[in-house]
Amino acid sequence: EHFYDPQSGSGYLAWRIKTVQRNTAARSQRSSTSTPYQDSPKRKREVLSTDKQLLGEQCHEAISFLKHSTDESAVKEKMRATFQYRQTLVQDQQCSSTVLDVFPRFLDITGLIDQDFTMMFGEEVSGRFLAKWPTFFKPRILTDCKKMTSNEHIQDLLSAQHDSGWDSDLSSILLLVHLLPPTSKGHKKSPKISASQAEDHVVRYLQ
């Protein structure tokens, strides 16, 4: 019974197994925190685009051109040529928040985010998502949200579907947060936040 007591589940072997499991879990947690962006937009991916990329001084000249040009076709061309540089910003924890400062044309020219998405994932993947969103994903999100315990915030997002002054696609993405409520990920010290608070982690509104 000193090695293992089947009646109480105690003894050296039981203690040793618990210790090994605890140490294994601790090592696994340390390794996961060392790569915090493993499955996020900041994860390094192989770029599918074959467009020629600008480097060094040419890249900085293109970035300066982007901030002042009024030619949308030229802006899109330069954005394609600086895609790789933009990826290094996104993957850098210190610089990722400056992407819109370096490339402000994301804010006033439509289609640039779709262009980057296509360069990263290819025409087939990006086209499949965009084609299925309005006909497959979005209607199901709205249907499920109407069955939820409603509150004022959910009602505002649902009513925004009929408001011409609101992006209905964006409101349905925010409704998805209510269908997938945030958790503390098993960490007792991490406070659980509400779905409304979680929206700030999905979309950041800029003036």
Short description:
With 207 residues, the chain is an all-alpha fold.
Overview of the structural elements:
The chain is an all-alpha fold and 207 residues long. It is 58% helix and 0% strand. It contains 10 helices and no strands. The longest helix has 24 residues, at 123-146.
Based on helices, strands and strand pairing, what is the structural class?
A: mainly alpha
**SS elements, strand count:** 0
The largest sheet is: none
Instruction: Assign an overall shape.
Output: extended
Oligomeric state as shown: single chain
Helix content: 55-70%
Strand residue percentage = under 5%
Rounded to an integer in angstroms, the radius of gyration calculated over CA atoms is 24 Å
CA-to-CA gap between the ends?
70 Å
Instruction: List the uncertain runs.
Output: none
Order of helices and strands: HHHHHHHHHH
Question: Mean pLDDT across all residues, rounded?
Answer: 80
User: With helices defined by DSSP (H or I, 4 residues minimum), what is the helix count?
Assistant: 10
Task: Give the SSE map.
Elements: H1 12-34, H2 56-68, H3 72-81, H4 83-91, H5 99-102, H6 112-121, H7 123-146, H8 152-159, H9 168-179, H10 195-202
